[in-house]
Amino acid sequence: MDDVSAILLAVLVGGVLAALVRLPPLLGFLAAGFVLYPLGVQAPPALGTIADLGVTVLLFGVGLKVDLRALVRREVWLTSSVHALVSTGITAGLLGLLAVLGVGLAAEGGLRSWLLIGFALSFSSTVFVVKVLEERGATQTLTGRLAIGVLVVQDLLAVVFLAVAEGTVPSPWALLLVLLIPAAPLLRRVLVRLGHDEMLPLYGIVLALVPGYALFSALGVKGDLGALLLGVLLAGQPRSAELAKSLFSIKDLLLVGFFVSIGLAGLPTGGELVIAAALLLVLPVQALVFVVLFYLARLRRRTAVFTSTVLTNFSEFGLIVAVALPDDLLDPGWAAPLAAAVAASFVLPSLIGDRPDRLVDLLRRWLPDRPDERLHPDDRPLDLGDAQAVVLGMGRVGYAAHRRLTEEYRLRAIGIEADGLRVADLAADGVHVIEGDATDPRLWEELELHHVELVLLAMPAHDANLATLTRLRAHGFEGTVAAVTQFDDDLAEVLTGGADIGLQLYEGAGAELADRAVGRLPPTQA
C-alpha cells in the first residue's frame, strides 16, 4: 500500500473510532498521524499544501463571522493582551525551572528562548477552537463571539511578533492593501449576484487564496491574515452566512491534512516528551487566567469558564515559531516537543466532557455571583415576560414556528436566539426575540416558566436541543415540549428523552408544501 492510500485509510479509521467514543474526529486524525509515523509512512508534499489551504479557508470563514466592533471591546482586546503577557511569563518561568533541573533543551537555552517559547504558547489554536465551536453550533453565541475575537487579536499579535523576530518588514507596497477597503462594495455586489451552485464556494476560495493569501504574502504580510481580513470585508453582507456554510465541507476535508500532518511530523524522544508534559502543566494556569480576566470584564462566572475552556489549548503558532525563527534565536530541536505539546493540548479539552459546569460550581466561592445590574449588558439573565410559548433557536424553522404561533394561534410567543446579529435583525422587523444561550443550565434555574405552556426546540445542533430538553424536564417543566430534528435517529432520541412532539425537518417541509399547494386550489377542488 502506498503512503497516500495508507494515510487516507488511517484518517478514516481514526475519525470513525474517535466518533464511536464521542470524541471530535480531528483527534482521530491526529492519532492516525502518530500511528503512521513509526510505520515509516511519509507525508507526501501535497499534504502540506492541503493543510495550508484548509487553514486559509478556515480563517476566511472566521472573517465572514467577525464583528469588528467586538474587537475593540475591553473584554476582547484587553483580555487577549494581558493574557499573552501573563502566560508568556508563566511559561518562561517553568522553562527556567526545568533549566535549573538540567532538563534537555530548556537547560541549553537562555531567557530569550524561554520567552519566545512562552509567547508562542500563549496563543490558542484558531483551527481547533473554531472547529469545536462549529461542532457545538456555538460560533455566534456570546462565548463563540468572545473566543473568535480573542483569536483575531492573537493573530494580529502573531503577525507583529514574526515581523520583529525574523527581522523582516512588509514591502512598502503593502500600504496599497488599504485599497481593498473601498473595493469591498464591489466584492459584496458580486456575492449578491452569484447563484446557489458551485460558483458560491468557488468565489469564497478564490477570494481567500488570491487577494487574500497570495497578495498579502507577496507584499510581506502573513497570508493567513490576508484571508481573514478578506472575510471581514464581506462580514455582515446578507449572503455571507450562506457563503460560509458553502465552504464548510470543503474546509473540513482540507483540515484533515492539517491535523494528520502534525502527527506525521515525528515522535519526540523521551527527554522531549518530558518537556512537552511539563508544558501541559501551563494549560490549567492559562485557563484560570482567562477565567479571572473575563470575570473582571463583568461576565458571569459560567460565561468566563466556558469561554476559557474553549480557548485552553496551544496554537499551531508554536510550531510556526519553531520552524520560522533563525537558529540563533531558537534551537530547531524545539519543533518535536512543541508538536507533542500542541497535539496533546487538543486532546485534553475534549476529555473534559461536562466538567465545565462542575468547575463553575467549584469557583463559586472565589468568583461570587454579581447583581444583575453589575453584569456585562450582553450577559444578563433573561426575562420571558408573560410569554405562553418559547421558541429556542430563531433560524428559518424557529422563525416560521414563531410566526405561526403568534399570527394563527394568537399565542404570546418569544424567541431565544444565541446569534446577536440575528436577534438584532429580527427585533428590527418587530419579532419578539431576545438573545440567550439555551444550553446554559443557570438559564433554566432563573427563568419563571409557570406561565409557559409550550417550548419549541429549533436550535441547529441536535445535542443542544437534547441537553435543553433534559434540563427542562429536570427542572420540573410540565408543559408541552416540541422538537425539530434533521435525522430520523435524532427524532427517536428526543422523543425518548421526553419531548411530547417531534418532527423530522424534511417531513415537515413536505407537509407544509402540500398544505400551501392545496390552499391555492380553487374551492371546488380543495
Automatic annotation (TrEMBL):
<feature type="domain" description="RCK N-terminal">
    <location>
        <begin position="390"/>
        <end position="500"/>
    </location>
</feature>
<keyword id="KW-0472">Membrane</keyword>
<dbReference type="InterPro" id="IPR038770">
    <property type="entry name" value="Na+/solute_symporter_sf"/>
</dbReference>
<keyword id="KW-0813">Transport</keyword>
<feature type="transmembrane region" description="Helical">
    <location>
        <begin position="332"/>
        <end position="352"/>
    </location>
</feature>
<feature type="transmembrane region" description="Helical">
    <location>
        <begin position="145"/>
        <end position="165"/>
    </location>
</feature>
<keyword id="KW-1133">Transmembrane helix</keyword>
<comment type="similarity">
    <text>Belongs to the monovalent cation:proton antiporter 2 (CPA2) transporter (TC 2.A.37) family.</text>
</comment>
<feature type="transmembrane region" description="Helical">
    <location>
        <begin position="84"/>
        <end position="107"/>
    </location>
</feature>
<feature type="transmembrane region" description="Helical">
    <location>
        <begin position="113"/>
        <end position="133"/>
    </location>
</feature>
<keyword id="KW-0812">Transmembrane</keyword>
<dbReference type="InterPro" id="IPR003148">
    <property type="entry name" value="RCK_N"/>
</dbReference>
<feature type="transmembrane region" description="Helical">
    <location>
        <begin position="200"/>
        <end position="219"/>
    </location>
</feature>
<dbReference type="Pfam" id="PF00999">
    <property type="entry name" value="Na_H_Exchanger"/>
</dbReference>
<feature type="transmembrane region" description="Helical">
    <location>
        <begin position="171"/>
        <end position="188"/>
    </location>
</feature>
<feature type="domain" description="Cation/H+ exchanger transmembrane">
    <location>
        <begin position="8"/>
        <end position="351"/>
    </location>
</feature>
<dbReference type="InterPro" id="IPR036291">
    <property type="entry name" value="NAD(P)-bd_dom_sf"/>
</dbReference>
<dbReference type="Pfam" id="PF02254">
    <property type="entry name" value="TrkA_N"/>
</dbReference>
<protein>
    <submittedName>
        <fullName>Cation:proton antiporter family protein</fullName>
    </submittedName>
</protein>
<feature type="transmembrane region" description="Helical">
    <location>
        <begin position="42"/>
        <end position="64"/>
    </location>
</feature>
<dbReference type="InterPro" id="IPR006153">
    <property type="entry name" value="Cation/H_exchanger_TM"/>
</dbReference>
<feature type="transmembrane region" description="Helical">
    <location>
        <begin position="273"/>
        <end position="297"/>
    </location>
</feature>
<feature type="transmembrane region" description="Helical">
    <location>
        <begin position="304"/>
        <end position="326"/>
    </location>
</feature>
